[in-house]
Amino acid sequence: MSKTLARPRTSAEIRRAFLEFFEQRGHARVPSSSLVPADDPTLLFTNAGMVQFKDVFTGKRQVPYRRATTAQKCVRAGGKHNDLENVGKTARHHTFFEMLGNFSFGDYFKREAIAYAWELVTGVFGLPKESLWATVYREDDEAARLWQEIAGLPEERIVRLGEKDNFWAMGDTGPCGPCSEILVDRGARYACDAPVCGIGRCDCDRWLEIWNLVFMQYERSADGTLTPLPKPSVDTGMGLERIASVLQGVDTNWDTDLFQPLLRRVEQLSGRSYDRGPDGFPFRVIADHARACTFLIADGVLPSNEGRGHVLRRILRRAVRFGRRLGLDRPFLFEMVPAVVEVMGEAYPEIAAAREFVQSVIRQEEERFGQTLEQGMALLDELVAQAKRSGSGRISGEDAFRLYDTYGFPLDLTVDAAEEAGLAVDREGFEAVMQEQRRRARADWQAKIGAAGQGGEWAEGLPATEFLGYERLAAEAEVLAIAAGGEGRPEARQGERVLVVLSATPFYAESGGQVGDTGWLEGPAGRARVEDTRKAAGVFLHTATIVEGRLTVGDIVQARVDEARRRDIMRNHSATHLLHRALKDVLGEHANQAGSLVAPDRLRFDFTALAAPTPEQLAEVEARVNEAVLAAHPVQVRHMRLDEAKALGAVALFGEKYGEIVRVVAMGPSIELCGGTHVSNTAEVGLFLLTSEGSVGSGVRRVEAVTGRGAYDYVRRREALLSAAAAAAKAPVEELAARVQEWAARLRERERELAALRAQAARAEAERLAAAAETVHGLPVVFAEVEGTDAEALRSLADGVRDRLRSGGVVLAAPVEGRALLLATFTKDAVQRGAHAGEVVARAARAIGGGGGGRPDFAQAGARDAARLGEALRAAREALEAMLRPA
Fold first, then answer.
1. Coil, helix or strand at residue 114
2. DSSP state of 425
3. Cα four-point dihedral sign 678, 683, 687, 691
């Protein structure tokens, strides 16, 4: 049946052999999905091969095959599956890894899955049969019997384990079933010193799991009842890194050809030699994290302070910190990207295509973190000094968490610095703050899931809604369900706001950046205004308010979309496609869509960029879009296989999940995969105008634009503003620019004169205050209230007074924007005598109900009550008297 395959050795050969083996046995080879799961807000990242098939297993999505095989890129960092802190310490933990898998969707089951697995590992991979063991679920007699019958495994090499180890579930309810693992006995030299070294008894390197076969054969209900599925399925996962270590005869994953080139690159960059022991820990962290960063950024994840971007930032910054252990104080991680592409680019061409962009994003983040790291180290030094002065002997959990959360310092780095200074860190306090943050994050995540319309028992069993809105904006449909407050109900009456599910609908549900349609439902006994349309699991949810009579389940209604609003949305959606193409043409192919909003009044488009576009480039982009509009290109929609669409050059968007058959929208120079609604000809877009451009994060820019009626309104508003400005300037519109430039030149001259007068006044004030200095234990110090100033001027004044004193200090208090601002600064010799500006202003601020602090030589604080400045200055004087040592 199959051609003879030479025993694979390299990771590329292993990956290829696995996929070809299952292809020859009727499996469709399906490309890896994105690391960003599509339509699944419960997952941060794709963490297993079955993620892209979840809706196939549950029957929500149909595919033209019943068997599949994949090499899936995965990340486990953040959320429930988090291997981040173990990376580099163990032989096998990684943030990024590849999972090889074969899947049966109601086709074959245990017998074939076990037979395929045994044939592959012993026949193709050539593993000695006597070294292989299997685990089964303790109650799965069928799997145990099949291992004996098919593989000839003796009963003593089939280990029965409990539900924790060998029973898999998609969630608390839904598909689930027993699983069976294949393990390699690597020999006694890898054994641990546990009393009993054996599978299920210890977790040592002797027993290496290489493949997990999951048998989905039950449906678990809310009460825990297991009901056999009519068409049981199979989901398997084999870690490429693990099987490569076995077939290449090496001790750890780090010794395989997947990591050795990366470790050598770290050696080149650092000028140090890799050690396979503890000293090699930083090398391994950098090699692993370089892979994760490269793949995540290539899949559209960018560093940020929340969600997936926050996890990426933590991974990237962790690599940078470990680079510093190797003396790499300059940006270096971006130089790892070509090495990652060299190893992985053939299997995953998307990282090769995005290499330049990935390097740019990483370098920018490294440079930004370099500055943050210096600030964090300064804060850490200050915390250590404070702990010593206070005699507490430790850094609080809150402060340790602030270092972790704000500056990316892991707890162990703070602990190391504290131990060097003879201090401890409140680990329990740190964990308490961490758990509270996680609780808030989980609550926020759940709120987002709820906002997306997920869940609701009332919606279970409803069929997917047929969408009619591509062809028409009005249709007749049956009301299948009505809900409010998370519960189904038979009818809704006037004034009530409910969710309505129809048998079919012309209303577009919010998706792909396009907002949901609005309009009307008209039934035999009432009328409802549709205010939004969303969807969950293929069911369209119409948010509607009953404005007349009532709406009842079973009613036949006329569903009518607000046509004018929809046509505005269509203009803007087609314009985003033309804009995307123009950005790529002008800025480069790296300008990929990173988010969008298609509303009736405007469009917003986020895109990846190496730098901010120039005004000239933006003008060219706008001109190109308008040229495509004026060319009156017909908009063509076709359905075809995904591989055919990509061959045509169709643009697929990051994070989107596509089936085998995709919808391709072509208009002039633009070809994209898209499920949205569009005009029939680009001429319908009308005028296209860019209205704004700016940054929304590292490596991401945003433009906003208007079209059609929105562009007309925009131009009219601008004309009205221009006319009003010309009238105020008493000049024709044509002369307005020259008149404004003339006024601006005069204003700049007046500002220079005013600045000179202020500087003169500030010098005089500084001289006056310095002359009025009092002595505290022999040290000249100025304590003064200042009126009519701002924060910047107050700092400048304090510097001027201190410089005139030459030795001593300044403590100033001022009302600024209704609040008390306190500021202190001391000369170097004053600090040596014990003066500490941070503690002085902290004491002063606390005296009037405020807070703050800072460095020994300069600090500021604030409080709400600006009427108690004198009281604050007295507290400052007392604090300084207490801390000064004799000269």
1. helix
2. E
3. positive
Measured CA to CA, the distance from residue 614 to residue 493 in angstroms comes to: 56
Tokens of 806: 């030459």
Give CA–CA dist 766/825, Å, rounded: 14
The residue among 222, 241, 137, 130 whose CA lies nearest residue 183 is 130
Instruction: Count CB neighbours of 840 within 10 A.
Output: 31
Beta carbons of 339 and 261 less than 8 angstroms apart: yes
- Written as six digits, the tokens of 97 are 């890894």
State pLDDT tens for residues 367-424: 888 776 777 777 788 888 888 888 888 888 888 888 877 766 767 668 766 876 788 8
* Cα 503 to Cα 520: distance, rounded to the nearest angstrom: 16
Three-state DSSP class for 191? coil
Q: Where are the alpha helices (DSSP H) in 700-848?
A: 708-729, 736-771, 791-805, 828-832, 837-847
Give CA–CA dist 393/646, Å, rounded: 63
CB atoms within 10 A of CB 707: 31
Rounded to whole angstroms, the Cα distance separating 278 from 261 reads: 19
Measured distance CA(204)–CA(134) in Å, rounded: 16
Beta strands in 204-255 (DSSP E): 207-220, 226-239
Q: How far apart are alpha carbons 566 and 600 in whole angstroms?
A: 7
Tokens of 119: 């044939």
Sheet of 661-667, strand order: 635-641, 661-667, 670-673
Tell me the CA distances in angstroms from 93 to 71, 196, 348, 390, one per residue in order.
Answer: 18, 24, 21, 41
Q: Which of 558, 557, 527 is nearest to 544 (CA)?
A: 527
**Residue 549 pLDDT:** 92
Cα–Cα distance, 45 to 126 (Å, whole number): 33
**343-352: long-range pairs with CB below 8 Å, 24+:** 343/257, 343/258, 343/261, 343/262, 344/291, 344/294, 344/295, 346/12, 347/12, 347/15, 347/71, 348/32, 348/73, 348/295, 348/298, 350/298, 350/299, 351/294, 351/295, 351/298
pLDDT tens, 323-355?
A: 988 989 899 999 999 999 999 999 999 999 889
Contact between residue 634 and residue 666 where contact means Cβ atoms under 8 Å apart: no
User: CA nearest 854: which of 811, 886, 806?
Assistant: 811
Distance CA 839, CA 850 (A): 13
Reduce the DSSP state of residue 678 to 3 states and report it.
Answer: coil
| Distance (Å, whole) CA 439 – CA 435 | 6
Which residue's structure tokens are 């200074």?
421
How far apart are alpha carbons 723 and 727 in whole angstroms? 6
pLDDT of residue 850: 84
Structure tokens at 280: 């090699």
User: In whole angstroms, what is the distance from residue 870 CA to residue 220 CA?
Assistant: 71
615-619: long-range contacts (C-beta < 8 A, 24 or more apart)? 617/586, 617/587, 618/690, 618/693, 618/703
